[in-house]
User: What shape does this take?
Amino acid sequence: MRFGVEFVPREPFWRTTLYVIEAERLGFEYVWVTDHYNNRNVFTTLTATAIYTRSIKLGVGVTNPYIRHPAATASAVASLAEIAPDRVALGIGAGDRATLEGIGIEIVKPLPAIRESVHIIRGLLAGNPVSIDGSVFKVKSASLNFKCRSYIPIYIGAQGPQMLSLAGEIGDGVLINASHPEDFRYAIEYVRKGVEKASKDIKNVDIVAYTAFSVADEEAKAMETSRQVVAFIVAGSPEAVLERHGINLELASRIRGLIVSGRFDEAFKSVTTDMIDAFSVSGSPSSVAKRIEECLKMGVTQFVVGSPIGPQPYEAMKIISSRIIPMFKAV
Ligand code: F42
Assistant: This one.
């Protein structure tokens, strides 16, 4: 099992860079940086971390085909790979609806948009001239003016069934935004469908658990730290997902209403332990290790610890490095 860590570049770049230097020292194999227009830019963040690290893989986790044309994304990742050869991975997804709509960008035909984006990006990175008369992208003839000398695996950030299958079909990997084994059971079934459609071997697809995570020796403290992130996850979760975890729909919609109206404290207070259990991996080292084990059994091949990581992120990364990663080294 590979371990990664996710950072949302909300903090000054030097803090994220220090976290990534520490993550590399502690044995994390991947760092994934999220991409939302209102946070620091994912490519400048990854460039800074590339310069101060030697081996940790640098993942765009994840961009989308609407904020930037796929040909421009190809140029950005190829440029990053020139700075950090053979260390870059590209994650692309439909984009966060609320964030994009906030700047007037509509998510249109997400499935063809992702399929066509991957076609354009893969072609450009391979050094081929690309033309496509797609239902979202029309490209007469595109090519990069420089060679990309690294292979850059393309991961699809996916949650819906059709996107999950598309990820299995065309992706080198899939980043599944979830924290509970039942969600991975559900998701991997669809990924498998796409893998079979492309007559691929699922062993060649990196199945990534992109979790909300919090670990501390004190279970209650770890759980408490996830409360805020879980409130936003509950607010954004489709009813089918809430029902899968037996979450009270009325309470979930109350939390959604509180968040939309900016009454965050009340929203956070309304989060239940069941919600924290369903939408995060939170607790003591032994309880999170048990959850990771369950995800492994579902077919997860990379486990990404996402925000908040723990009450003290540095302490939490040290706990993961010394008491959790070694448990899964051999598997
Ligand atoms: N989003 C960001 O903006 N930034 C990030 O850094 C980020 C990180 C991230 C990491 C992992 C991950 O899994 C997701 C992440 N996301 C991030 C969220 C991601 O960008 C998407 O918002 C999220 O994955 C939800 O999208 P989805 O994969 O579920 O796809 C959506 C669009 C969806 O509704 N899919 C449906 C499905 O079944 O998969 C199909 C929707 C569809 O195709 N509808 C058609 C249409 O044309 O709209 C019509 C209906 C039909 O069936 O044809």
Notes: The pocket of coenzyme F420 is lined by residues 34-36, 61-62, 64, 93-96, 99, 107, 109-111, 157-163, 175-177, 210 (CB under 6 Å). The longest helix spans residues 219-236.
